[in-house]
Amino acid sequence: MSNSDRVVLVLGGAGTVGSGIVKALLDKGFKVAVVSRDGSRLERLQTFISPSTKENLITVVGNVGSEDGAGEAKQALLQQAGKVTDIVSSLGFSWWQGGPPHTQSLKDLHWVIETLLFSTFVSWKAFFPLVRDNPDCSYTFITGGAGEKLLMPGTGFLTVGAASALAFCQVLREEYPEVACRLNQVKINTGVAAPERLAPGYLNHLDLGVAVATLVERGSSSHSVFTVSSPADLQTVLLEGNL
C-alpha cells in the first residue's frame, strides 16, 4: 500500500509532539487525520504544516476522551476519510508539577489519570477495531519515561499517571500477541519541544516526528518498544534503520 493510499489518525496531533508527527507524515505523502476539542488548535496546525500538504490533512472537532465523544469523532472521521489505516496515539501532557501527594486532592489525581490513561484507553477502544485485523495497518503509542521514576520533587502524580499509561501499553502487547495489525510503542525518556524552545538534551519535535513517521512507513516491526533517551539516540535509530 502506497503512502498516498494510507490514512493516519494522529490522536493528540494538535499538541507539541503530535504536530511534529503530523507534519512528517504529510511530508511523506500520507493522508493525516487529527481530532481536537479546540478548533483554534486545528487552525494553528493548518498554518504549521507544509502548505503543499494541506489538502491531505483532515481535521475533526471532537472529544476522544469520552466514550460518546470518541464514537462521534470516529463516525465524523470515517465520513470524511472513508477509512483509517494507521493510528498514532500521542495523548495527555508531558509535564505536571502540582506538588507532593499530601498537598493534592482526589480531584487532582483523577484529572491526571483521566488525561494520561482514560483518554488513551477510550480512544484505543473506539479506534482500534478499525485497524486490528489488517496486517497492513498499525497502532503506535507515544509514551514518556516519567512513569519509571520521580523526575523531581512535586511531580509525583505525573509519575503515577505516566506509569499507568506504560502499564496499559504493556497489557495490550501481552493481551493481543497475535493481533494482525502492527502494535508498537515509542517511549521518550527526555523532553520534547519546538525548535525555539529546545533545552539541552531535549528532542526537536520535528526530528521525533520524522522518526515516528518512518516507523509507520516501514511497517517492519510489531509488539516492540522503541526507547529514545536523547537526540543522539534518535539519530542512531534513524540512521541505522532500527525502526
**Structural class by secondary-structure content:** alpha/beta
End-to-end separation in angstroms reads 19 Å
User: Largest beta sheet, briefly?
Assistant: 7 strands, parallel
Please tally the helical runs, counting DSSP H or I stretches of 4 or more residues: 7
How do the strands of the widest beta sheet line up side by side? 3-2-1-4-5-6-9
Quick gist of this model?
By secondary structure, the chain is of the alpha/beta class.
Describe this structure in words.
The protein is an alpha/beta fold and 243 residues long. The protein has 7 helices and 9 strands; from the N terminus they run βαβαβαβαβαβββαβα. A 7-stranded parallel sheet has the order 3-2-1-4-5-6-9, sandwiched between helices. α1 (16-27) crosses α6 (205-218), α3 (67-81) packs parallel to α4 (106-127) and α4 runs parallel beside α5. The radius of gyration is 17 Å and the shape is globular.
Which properties best describe this structure?
243 residues, alpha/beta, 7-stranded parallel β-sheet, 18% strand, globular
Outline the fold blueprint.
Blueprint (H helix, E strand, L loop, with lengths): L6 E5 L4 H12 L3 E6 L2 H10 L8 E5 L5 H15 L4 E4 L16 H22 L10 E7 L11 H20 L6 E7 L3 E2 L9 E2 H14 L5 E5 L2 H10 L3
Parallel strand pairs: 1-2, 1-4, 2-3, 4-5, 5-6, 6-9, 7-8
Helix pairs in contact: 1-6, 3-4, 4-5, 6-7
